Amino acid sequence: MSNASPQPIILTGDRPTGPLHLGHYLGSLRARVQLQHEAKQYLLLADAQAMTDNVGKHQKVTDNVIEVALDYLAAGIDPEKSTIFIQSQVIELAELTQYLMNLVTVARLERNPTIKQEIVLRGFERDIPAGFLVYPVSQAADITAFKATLVPVGDDQLPMIEQTNELVRKFNATVDRQVLVECKAVLSAVTRLPGIDGKAKMSKSLGNSIALGATPDEINKAIKMMYTDPNHLRVDDPGQVEGNVVFSFLDVFEPDTAKLDDLKAHYRRGGLGDSVLKKMLNERLQEVLAPIRSERERLAKDRGEMLSVIKRGTYKAREAAAQTLSEVKAALGLNYFG
User: Fold this and answer.
1) What local confidence, expressed as pLDDT, does residue 337 receive?
2) Per the count of CB atoms within 10 A, which of 8, 45, 81, 334 is most buried?
3) 135 found inside a domain
4) Are the C-beta atoms of residues 31 and 76 closer than 8 Å to each other?
5) Global pTM value
6) Is residue 99 part of a domain?
7) Which 3 state secondary structure label does DSSP give 75?
8) Which residues of the chain have pLDDT under 70?
9) Using an 8 Å Cβ cutoff, are 209 and 31 in contact?
């Protein structure tokens, strides 16, 4: 008998409201590329969840399903090792969401820190779409349907993982058997990359991001716009490193840490211009994004093949989700016909 540990199962994904950007790449996509060699990985294109706060803009969501899939593959996701699928086409997820909703109160959903923050960001106040409020339950269904044990997320998504595990424990206690599986969050070394305007989060909707498929000119333009130190008016002025977006990026992309430490010391004492730093960062980002952009352009030439990849993954995902749903319904006594 083998004593080997079971292969981890990973569920992760993105809302297809636009192409992926550097924040996604650093926050979780790089981890997904590595983890696909170590685990059974499902990558979800969360179009149904994206609809909850994109009423009237549904075409944007559906148009971007292939765009996000292109970003996955261009960044190194292998469809032979990772299952890419569309959430709305795995109908078992909607049914599982319905059963899990009975195990959580509206008050508990409203206390979820991630949801509270998103409600404020979108200006919903009390006019919260019901689908948006139960977003954590839908996400729990996505995770538990595949019995995922690991979920790569940014630190702002940790409350969602906590709520998923609450629902798992509640369901298993309700049916008095172990049906669903708890999961653990996998945080990357860089949990969040700031926007180029200095805001805490890079976001396409805020216009402060750099797309993975950005052209050389777009990268250069974004770097020129980057927030540095507003008090560093002249080259000779001492500058502040903390909160300086250019240094935040260099901390991630400059491999020569000794050189970077020298630059920080020089900047703090004065005599180092922002243009020098931005030129250096531009060189690094061009190096990182050039191969991704090139591969993305190659893949985009055959949209039919892209759809085939997603279709195959969706069929595979439905098989796995259907098995879990069957176990859930049996545990609830909903197997009337055997």
Assistant:
1) 87
2) 45
3) yes
4) no
5) 0.87
6) yes
7) helix
8) 1-5, 27, 188-192, 200
9) no
250 shares its domain with 137 = no
Whole-number Cα distances in Å, 331 to 97, 182, 326: 15, 17, 9
Q: What is the CATH number of the domain that holds 261?
A: 1.10.240.10
Question: Taking a C-beta distance cutoff of 8 angstroms, is the pair 210, 196 a contact?
Answer: yes
The stretches of 90-204 forming alpha helices (DSSP H) are 92-101, 106-111, 113-122, 130-133, 135-145, 158-175
The model's pLDDT over 233-286, given as tens digits with 9 standing for 90+, comes to 899 999 999 999 999 999 989 999 999 999 999 999 999 999 999 999 999 999
Query: What is d(CA 281, CA 131) in angstroms, rounded to the nearest whole number?
Result: 41
How many domains does the structure of the chain reveal?
2
Instruction: State the helix-helix crossing angle for 257-269 and 245-253, rounded to 10 degrees.
Output: 160
Same domain assignment for residues 33 and 14:
yes
- Cα dist from 78 to 56, 73, 105, 265, 318, whole Å: 34, 6, 39, 42, 19
Predicted pLDDT of residue 1: 43
Q: Max alpha carbon distance in the chain (Å)? A: 80
